[in-house]
């Protein structure tokens, strides 16, 4: 079958396009020829020609008869062509950049605009701060740091986005995505009240960067049982202070349990039984005002009746009966339970660790109830997988937040100024088992936690699926940085961001000519692969009741005063190095030579 002949409409369309192309070249070229010809005439002392671009292109010798042929060739032919090529290339580059920017802007515009996230911007957040903090009610001017915690700028704008002093946040950011430089450190530096930081690093991290600045705001307390910063023991904390009730003892034992086993294993018989024995012994030690290390002796000798007598003497007969039943039970069961409890509390056998949680002469005691009414800072440092050491870090952080809750209730409901707990590396060094439940009310007490995780699955491993989902749901602000490699979580985020309408144009050809149709279809605003490819320095922000926003993060080293912080951080890091070198330097033997 012979091919269908091309319609006359297609021929007219081709001629029209050719005509437009010729005009697009000839019109600017003729004007450039006229302009360049006059410039050439001026340079050769010839007369200025009137505005005749066509003649300048076709018959330049008629307009400038006094100018030489070579000069006219260069001025009205070569130079205009070169200029036209340069202008065309520049226009192409600018158009390509504009097209790329338009493509990326399209996704952002379909996300939150300033009006969509207005409750987190300066005017609204300042008004909210006045209502939440009685101390600011009549202030004429309020510093930005007193209104909320800076998260970043709305992408492509100067609008600062802050979480208020009734928000609670979860940040999920991969390593080296700005979680410390752009979130933890700026939050600590801008906090108006007491600050608590948990971390597994010291040199070159939030600890060294913020230490001097926070020392100007109040007293700095450092609990470093595993000598991450090689800090001198300038404090001790009594974990049994809040364990004089059964609930308090259960909470303390729960921290040892959570630090030792994952959420999926905490419900089995041995874990529960070991935690119960630990709780009963902690209660006995607290009631008799003994150091926490005494429980290790009781665990080593189950037949020791001292804890039983203490519990009975203080009116805990039922607890004593439970303990007695375990001690007098089948030997193989009893030994298994006690061995499990010994493993949970094994870090207390380390005298260096135990010294931080037992009374020390000439060393001040850290008291959470006093801390929460100050502008002091508490640094809690522990290594990943620190076992019992991380249990003590979690227990201390928990005791501070509970003391803050009690103080808020005494103060009428909220802390003023609010307290900022930054739980960096929370899944590694601060496994507070009921943290998801605490999230439901901490914000209303003026306690503004920021829990920083490397991935959603990391949180599921510590708190279980239900616990992590509860924390995610209770968080009024969620910050998602770059490096999200979990496809399920990335798709979940993509669905939360939503869809938008995309215009699709289709063209068809037939014997009667060409037809064009326009239709609308829905497409993800930010698909999962785009979330995975979020560039460093940007983050997604999900705030309750608002559209998802894209943020430009603001690392501390790009802010005013960064030079001073850099200097103090380098000085603090060098001090850690010096202490480490001195600690591990070879010691001289009896003959005065290095061992």
Automatic annotation (TrEMBL):
Localization, UniProt: Cell membrane
Q: Where are the transmembrane segments?
A: 14-34, 72-95
Positions with biased composition (Low complexity) = 504-519
Per UniProt, residues of the TraD/TraG TraM recognition site domain are: 419-536
Q: Which InterPro entries match?
A: P-loop_NTPase (IPR027417), T4SS-coupling_protein (IPR051539), TraG-D_C (IPR032689)
**Location of the region described as Disordered in the Swiss-Prot/TrEMBL record:** 502-521
Keyword Chloroplast belongs to the record: no
Q: Which UniProt keywords apply?
A: Cell membrane, Membrane, Transmembrane, Transmembrane helix
Membrane topology type: Multi-pass membrane protein
Task: Write the protein's name.
Answer: TraD/TraG TraM recognition site domain-containing protein
Give the source species.
Streptomyces hebeiensis
């Amino acid at each position: 079958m012979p091919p269908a002949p091309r319609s006359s409409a297609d021929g007219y369309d081709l001629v029209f396009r050719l005509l437009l192309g010729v005009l697009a070249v000839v019109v600017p070229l003729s004007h450039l020829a006229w302009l360049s010809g006059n410039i050439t005439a001026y340079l050769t002392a010839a007369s200025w020609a009137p505005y005749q671009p066509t003649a300048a292109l076709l018959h330049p010798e008629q307009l400038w008869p006094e100018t030489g042929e070579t000069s006219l060739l260069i001025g009205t032919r070569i130079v205009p062509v070169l200029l036209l090529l340069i202008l065309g290339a520049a226009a192409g580059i600018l158009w390509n950049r504009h097209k790329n920017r338009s493509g990326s802007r399209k996704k952002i515009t379909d996300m939150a605009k300033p009006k969509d996230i207005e409750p987190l911007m300066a005017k609204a957040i300042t008004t909210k701060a006045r209502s939440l903090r009685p101390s600011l009610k009549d202030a004429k001017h309020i510093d930005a740091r007193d209104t909320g915690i800076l998260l970043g700028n709305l992408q492509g704008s100067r609008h600062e986005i802050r979480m208020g002093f009734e928000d609670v946040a979860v940040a999920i950011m991969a390593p080296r995505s700005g979680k410390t430089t752009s979130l933890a450190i700026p939050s600590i530096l801008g906090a108006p009240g007491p600050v608590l930081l948990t971390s597994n690093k010291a040199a070159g991290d939030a600890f060294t960067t913020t230490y001097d600045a926070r020392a100007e705001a109040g007293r700095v307390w450092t609990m470093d049982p595993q000598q991450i910063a090689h800090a001198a023991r300038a404090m001790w904390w009594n974990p049994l202070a809040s364990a004089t009730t059964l609930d308090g003892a259960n909470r303390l034992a729960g921290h040892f349990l959570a630090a030792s086993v994952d959420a999926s294993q905490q419900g089995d018989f041995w874990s529960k039984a070991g935690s119960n024995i630990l709780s009963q012994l902690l209660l006995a030690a607290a009631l008799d005002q003994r150091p926490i290390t005494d429980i290790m002796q009781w665990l080593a000798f189950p037949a020791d009746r001292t804890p039983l007598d203490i519990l009975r003497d203080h009116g805990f007969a039922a607890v004593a009966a439970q303990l007695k039943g375990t001690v007098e039970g089948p030997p193989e069961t009893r030994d298994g339970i006690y061995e499990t409890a010994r493993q949970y509390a094994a870090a207390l056998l380390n005298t260096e660790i135990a010294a931080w949680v037992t009374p020390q002469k000439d060393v001040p005691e850290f008291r959470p109830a006093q801390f929460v009414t100050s502008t002091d800072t508490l640094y809690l440092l522990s290594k990943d997988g620190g076992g019992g050491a991380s249990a003590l870090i979690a227990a201390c952080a928990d005791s501070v937040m509970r003391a803050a809750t009690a103080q808020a209730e005494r103060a009428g409901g909220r802390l003023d100024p609010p307290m900022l707990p930054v739980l960096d590396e929370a899944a590694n060094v601060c496994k507070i088992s009921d943290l998801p439940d605490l999230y439901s009310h901490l914000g209303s007490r003026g306690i503004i936690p920021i829990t920083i995780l490397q991935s959603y699955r990391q949180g599921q491993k510590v708190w279980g699926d239900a616990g992590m989902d509860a924390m995610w749901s209770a968080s009024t602000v969620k910050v998602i940085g770059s490096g999200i490699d979990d496809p399920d979580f990335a798709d979940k985020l993509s669905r939360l961001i939503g869809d938008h309408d995309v215009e699709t144009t289709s063209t068809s050809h037939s014997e009667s000519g060409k037809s064009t149709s326009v239709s609308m279809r829905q497409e993800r605003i930010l698909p999962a692969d785009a979330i995975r490819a979020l560039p460093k320095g940007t983050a997604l922000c999900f705030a309750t009741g608002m559209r998802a926003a894209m943020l430009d993060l603001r690392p501390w080293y790009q802010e005013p005063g960064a030079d001073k912080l850099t200097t103090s951080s380098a000085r603090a890091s060098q001090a850690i190095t010096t202490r480490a070198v001195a600690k591990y330097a070879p010691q001289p033997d009896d003959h005065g030579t290095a061992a």
